[in-house]
């Protein structure tokens, strides 16, 4: 669940809680979606677009804009909701989600305004981000590139090839963020294929490593908003999260990887979120 201590961050945490219900609304209407994985990264995506990314929506293809690549493409519901809230497109377009011939499909697609690259085949987003970051350095451009990866896709060899490449070319304008919720579609990441200790692995590859609580709004703002700590290294933020975060009966439950809430479950979620918001305002 999103949480914070100062008023500005509490306001953002409350907003992020409300976004969780919008994710459920989207999934319920379409009768399909990646529920729990979207909830584990919604705080990050919201803070990134609200406070961090330097993008002029009136000139969306500005060559100096910051870039965001969502390698974890199946958590598209979180991204669609944030983009609609930030004004990248009319929220009513989400009524077509998963509909016949709709641009709003079940994985990240660049047909949707505000999305840089289509993803969904796991393990390729970091390579895309590394190439874009290298291009920026070669052309003396100041933009930053953020890439969100799921911890499950850290088993892909292409991720580590990109990690090696990024360190070799000193891509200090590249920030990888790992949604470390420790669950995949059928079991825990440790059981399916252990990738820990991730911090040691990235350090050995030549990266600057930061570990945070991915639901702490203050930590998200600080880690994402800070200038690169090293001028000759890429940065990875290992974001410890909870799959299904914010809705207690979904948290750390693998059955919610791709599941639609019933009316009863939805009402439970609504009441729980409302209660949490009231407590945060108290």
Automatic annotation (TrEMBL):
Highest taxon of the lineage: Bacteria
Gene3D superfamilies on file: 3.40.50.970
Presence of the UniProt keyword Lipid biosynthesis in the record: no
Domain Transketolase N-terminal: start-end pairs: 18-258
The keyword Cell membrane belongs to this UniProt entry's keyword annotation: no
UniProt keyword terms in alphabetical order: Thiamine pyrophosphate
Entry similarity comment: Belongs to the transketolase family.
This protein's name: Transketolase N-terminal domain-containing protein
Organism: Bartonella doshiae NCTC 12862 = ATCC 700133
């Amino acid at each position: 669940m999103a949480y914070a201590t100062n008023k500005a961050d509490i306001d953002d945490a409350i907003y992020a809680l409300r976004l969780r219900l919008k994710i459920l609304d989207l999934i319920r209407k379409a009768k399909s979606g990646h529920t729990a994985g979207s909830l584990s990264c919604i705080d990050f995506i919201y803070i990134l677009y609200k406070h961090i990314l330097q993008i002029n929506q009136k000139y969306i293809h500005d060559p100096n804009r910051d870039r965001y690549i969502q390698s974890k493409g199946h958590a598209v519901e979180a991204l669609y909701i944030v983009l609609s809230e930030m004004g990248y497109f009319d929220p009513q377009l989400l009524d077509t989600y998963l509909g016949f011939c709709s641009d709003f499909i079940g994985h990240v697609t660049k047909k949707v305004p505000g999305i840089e690259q289509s993803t969904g085949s796991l393990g390729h987003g970091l390579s895309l981000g590394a190439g874009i970051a290298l291009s920026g350095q070669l052309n003396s451009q100041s933009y930053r590139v953020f890439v969100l990866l799921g911890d499950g896709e850290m088993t892909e060899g292409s991720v580590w090839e990109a990690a090696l490449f990024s360190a070799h070319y000193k891509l200090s304008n590249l920030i990888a963020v790992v949604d470390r919720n420790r669950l995949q579609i059928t079991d825990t990441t440790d059981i399916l294929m252990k990738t820990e200790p991730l911090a040691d692995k990235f350090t050995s590859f030549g990266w600057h490593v930061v570990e945070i609580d991915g639901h702490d709004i203050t930590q998200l703002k600080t880690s994402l908003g800070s200038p690169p700590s090293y001028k000759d290294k890429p940065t990875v933020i290992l974001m410890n999260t909870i799959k299904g975060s914010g809705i207690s009966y979904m948290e750390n439950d693998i059955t919610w990887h791709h599941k639609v809430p019933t009316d009863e479950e939805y009402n439970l979620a609504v009441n729980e979120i409302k209660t949490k918001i009231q407590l945060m305002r108290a």
